[in-house]
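LAB NOTEBOOK - FOLDING QUEUE
OPERATOR: T.R.
BATCH SIZE: 2
PURPOSE: Compare the predicted structure-token outputs for two unrelated chains run back to back under identical settings.
PRIORITY: normal
REVIEWER: second-year student, initials M.K.

ITEM 1
FIELD SEQUENCE / FIELD STRUCTURE:
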Amino acid sequence: MTDGPQADGPAPEWTPTPQDRLAGRLREALSGREVREVRMFGGLAFMVGERLAVSVGRQGDLLVRVDPDDYDRWLERGATPATMKDGERPMGRRWLSVPSQRLKDDDELAFWVNTGIAAGR
């Protein structure tokens, strides 16, 4: 007799989520830098030089730290105002969300990563 249910075949293959895929791209983009990954607020934050620069959301969107003086300009580039987890409370002019469809190009991803790093200095 065995404990628990028995598998009827091989274990299913792991399928990466949108968050997993974007996190992998961020690891490549940030290679060579002092980076620490921290799970917070339902996302995976990338700390660069001990400052949160960007965080990957569950759906593959990117939360980006920004200079408040550039906030409106980055909205025009395709970012959206970042909100708290409930989706209603704004996070203020230091944070923007970049939808996953805006991050398909590596150059665009690099732009937002560098924006987050610069704003964290």
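ITEM 2
FIELD SEQUENCE / FIELD STRUCTURE:
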Amino acid sequence: MRRIISVLLAFAMVVCLAPAVFGASDAEIQAAEDLHALGLFQGTGTNPDGTPIYSLDRAPNRCEAVTMLVRLLGKEAEADSGTWRIPFTDVDRWAVPYVGYAYSNQLAFGTGSTTFDGKSSVTATQYLTFVLRALGYESGTDFHWNAAWELSDRIGLTNGEYSESSAFTRGDAAKISFNALLIPLKDGKETLAQKLIREGAFSEAAFRTVFFEMIPALTAKPDPSDDMDVLEAEAYERILALQDEYPEGASWTIHDMYHREPIGTGYPTFDSYGCLGFAMLVSDAAFGDLPYWRRNPGEFDYDSIRVGDILRINNDTHSVVVLEKHDTHLILVEGNYLDVVHWGRVLPREEAEKADYLLTRYQDN
């Protein structure tokens, strides 16, 4: 199906208005837009129409990276108004408030006793280290700063895309920062987004506008001629019908349970909780008592993903259901997304291809 949806139009507008961003992925562009809407990310300049130029394909230096971190935490005003004493003699005057705040709060340290090396390009592991510290993790205890991706992969902040040799751009920083909002702090009591809302960095209403906005196209009746066979079209209609009982923003947490009857050989009756429970509920509503098959990495590709399939993502921590499939992205429905039901999140193709496994009810998949 290739129906035009609002998010796809937004992607196109960003690309048209920011011609310098040739290397940025859809995920990076959307992350920058969402962070900017929350006041947590700024551009490197503006277009003639006043829209920001994000320069997502450019490598940031260490001072710029620390500045992005401070803005992510909603602490720019506090940094600018503070008086900071830092031991580093190589930090430009404009960057002192940001480096000072990060250094004073043990988020960033120098490369030597008096050097910060602020004009050198930041590496992936350095920026991941900054963000992990902001989440409450301690380098040297919880992770090694020179291999920070090992912990970030485990907690779902990243998904295996970074290593010692990885190139790193402002787009990468935007994507990691965006992901960090949905990651629980080390103590497990709240996510970074919940902490920032509590501290007044942005309102809950603003957050829900960015992360839970419905896509108007979801209410449109599917056309079976649009690249869907009859089973897919029926599954699509049955999934959409669930919006009456499970509307956008309805509570569905890790404690919510779905009692699932036996489906397929070797899968007895059991109770599923959280995101998997909701995914199973949606799948059963779409396909009834059809059996399902599990496809591991290497046994499926993007072309084989179909409406109603369940994808396990984020390092085997979250389950989602495919509502729509497009050439560049999927549209999802999911439960336990910040404790609620969410319709319409975009999952870029590149992220879908990294899924931990796929559960399908299509025998020919």
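REVIEWER COMMENT (ITEM 2): The CA atoms of residues 192 and 246 lie 26 Å apart.
FOLLOW-UP: none requested
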